[in-house]
Specification:
It contains 15 helices and 14 strands. It is α+β, with helices and mostly antiparallel strands.
């Protein structure tokens, strides 16, 4: 918090504030559902309370205006908790209540709430699973499991190249489905954990777990490894100290051990998404074969004038919409396109000379 002072709470005070917040949320007509993020067992000091909230979608007529007024989460927080300060960072709303910091993480649907409840629970559990997923060409976060499809994800002989992903493929958005794929015991998760060691051992049952994947970490994971006790505990459990951890190469999350995108896509039955992405990419490539702005540079226009020429060309084609422009290019004979290019280039050159 920037303006209002808050303090750390012990276990008893923390449980008390959890109950107070829960009561207010349960009684509010503006909150459809919520989850208190599961804290690590054995923890006895707390700096904040993380709560996933799903506001009720409701609108009421605004006074003196024709437009509808939708109550925001900030409005709800002010009404329920009367904080001295609210700080917003994306979907996270931080505020003070009873000398303690509360962090509301806004959720967009019941499905997202369930997935977020799993991903954010038990400290860095979700982040550790996410690191393992990234090492195999997948992504895991509060939205579930997905992948940025690579050529290596559809062609086993292709080299892994993460610089030109084809598009995003959503794989699974519920915890049980994700854990089944990872060959982890969902029922064991539902039982809860009495110690942090139990969580560590359960995480290591993931079929994607390889100790080597934690020997190279990106900036975000290195920060966690340096500052988060549970992350450090996990690394220590696999005999890794910070002196062993190097700076990751590869994508933004670390090096990729192997690409199992094809396996995941088949497991979750998402080939339809892949086919649509490939069809879209094929259209784009076919359209680029017929026209790109580079042709105006070849006809003598300066780089700074190419943008104007492309806009004029699209005006003649009758659309600035990307999809409709692609439709026009694919349906128009190359001779017609070439003639229009010459006309636009001549018009631009004459305009610049005058």
């Amino acid at each position: 918090m920037m303006e209002v002072k808050t303090r750390r709470f012990g276990k008893e005070e923390y449980e008390d504030i959890k109950e107070k917040v829960s009561i207010k949320l349960r009684e509010s007509e503006d909150i459809n559902d919520f989850r208190i993020v599961k804290e690590l067992p054995g923890k006895d000091s707390f700096g904040d309370l993380d709560v996933l909230v799903l506001p009720t979608a409701q609108e009421s007529a605004s006074l003196g205006r024709d437009k509808k007024y939708k109550k925001t989460l900030c409005d709800i927080i002010k009404e329920l908790f009367e904080p001295g300060e609210i700080q917003r960072n994306g979907t996270v709303y931080s505020f003070n209540f009873c000398e303690f910091q509360i962090d509301f993480i806004r959720q967009g649907s019941a499905v997202q709430l369930e997935m977020g409840d799993f991903y954010f629970g038990y400290g860095d559990m979700g982040g550790l699973l996410g690191r393992m997923a990234c090492a195999h060409g997948l992504k895991f976060g509060e939205a579930g499991l997905w992948c940025n499809l690579l050529l290596a994800g559809i062609n086993e002989s292709a080299k892994i190249d993460q610089t030109q992903p084809i598009g995003r493929v959503a794989l699974c958005d519920n915890p049980r489905g994700v854990l089944d794929f990872l060959e982890m015991d969902y029922d064991r998760y539902l039982q809860g954990f009495e110690t942090q060691d139990e969580i560590v051992e359960w995480i290591k049952t993931c079929k994607l777990f390889h100790r080597e994947d934690f020997l190279g970490l990106n900036h975000r994971h290195r920060h966690r490894a340096n500052t988060r006790p549970f992350y450090i505990k996990f690394l220590n459990s696999i005999s890794i100290g910070m002196e062993d951890v190097g700076v990751a190469k590869g994508d933004a999350t670390g090096e990729m051990r192997e690409c199992i995108q094809a396996e995941a896509i088949a497991y979750f039955g998402q080939q339809g998404q892949v086919d649509r992405l490939l069809f879209k990419r094929g259209r784009q490539e076919a359209a680029k074969e017929k026209f790109t702005g580079a042709v105006f540079k070849e006809l003598g226009l300066q780089h700074k004038d190419v943008g104007l020429a492309v806009r004029k060309f699209k005006e003649r084609a009758g659309t600035h919409s990307k999809d409709l422009f692609e439709d026009w290019l694919l349906a128009t004979p190359q001779e017609t396109i070439n003639a229009m290019v010459l006309e636009v280039a001549q018009e631009c050159n004459e305009g610049l000379q005058s």
